[in-house]
Amino acid sequence: xxxxxxxxxxxxxxxxxxxxxxxxxxxxxxxxxxxxxxxxxxxxxxxxxxxxxxxxxxxxxxxxxxxxxxxxxxxxxxxxxxxxxxxxxxxxxxxxxxxxxxxxxxxxxxxxxxxxxxxxxxxxxxxxxxxxxxxxxxxxxxxxxxxxxxxxxxxxxxxxxxxxxxxxxxxxxxxxxxxxxxxxxxxxxxxxxxxxxxxxxxxxxxxxxxxxxxxxxxxxxxxxxxxxxxxxxxxxxxxxxxxxxxxxxxxxxxxxxxxxxxxxxxxxxxxxxxxxxxxxxxxxxxxxxxxxxxxxxxxxxxxxxxxxxxxxxxxxxxxxxxxxxxxxxxxxxxxxxxxxxxxxxxxxxxxxxxxxxxxxxxxxxxxxxxxxxxxxxxxxxxxxxxxxxxxxxxxxxxxxxxxxxxxxxxxxxxxxxxxxxxxxxxxxxxxxxxxxxxxxxxxx
Length: 444
Description:
With 444 residues, the chain is of the alpha+beta class. It has two domains: 6-199 and 239-262, no CATH class; 319-436, no CATH class. The protein has helices at 9-19, 24-27, 122-141, 156-170, 174-180, 187-197, 200-208, 216-221, 233-352, 354-359, 373-412, 418-436; strands spanning 6-7, 35-41, 47-58, 66-71, 76-80, 86-89, 98-100, 148-149. α3 crosses α4 (156-170), α6 (187-197) crosses α9 and α9 runs parallel beside α12 (418-436). The radius of gyration is 60 Å and the shape is rod-shaped. 18% of the residues are buried.
């Protein structure tokens, strides 16, 4: 069966006129409901005000804070607190702690007792849906809403009929319930009728105790003056009193068990709160452990980086020291090459300037000229030979140097450094000195 998803006040009125017209004025009495302007905070923590319906008390039956109902057409929101304070929302998990006051508690099958909401059975969920329907209806009736939206599986018209029938029965008007109820009766009335059947054997026993098999009182009731079904109000009132007494007796029997269940559930709530606290502490410790682990990993990575940099620095220092030693040795070779080149250049200059060379007493291979012209010519010829020798030697050294440089480049496939060139030059000088037995390098 499919139901409407949207309801208006006319839908409820039309359904009531068809199925329970006499009981509908009881639930449509606006004076029975209390509205006040309440301050509250929404889901974003912003303070607001709205006209809310007082439906009961929270957590305690009479001395607890007042529970207020408010809706914008989508779902009912419950708040608790004094009307002068900023009310807080009732958590969905604590909906069972709402104790309804009159007339709402007269509309449920269990009068809004707390023990009926401890377990989320199908019947109790249905009862909560009935209370929600009544709140929606009251808001429509008072003009706070124009339209009510619900899911397709909820019949709000039948829920209001259920609440109205229970209210009529609790207000001691069972004859209206019996006259105008169409279809199956509410659950409360059915259970009460079943309870009344348990009293029947007593009346049967009283009839059998009479000599004629029927009591005098019963014989009088069944006479010609017996009332009709519609005029049997005293009998129905008597039955209602018996049923109420039986219901109260069952409530008294269930009270110790209910108190025990309530205590156990409160203890369970305390244990759950402790468990939640331990869980929060565990999560905090876990978060701190993760942060410390990440910090330690970062420190280890930084330590490895500094170790790598330190090793690179040590290697660079070692290379610097080796470079200094090599440069020192290269400086010695470079000095020797420069001395050899200077010796050759000086020899050529000295040989080319015979007069200046004759004035130097320490010049090598110098020959002092005599006054004789032949000796002077011989001296000049010898000087020219010396110049030619040193020029030829210098040319040979340069050619050999270039040849060995090209050979070294072809073998290494790279450019030679200055120290390497100096080493090649000294090797050529050593070879020439060994071959010609001429001291080219200056004596130290």
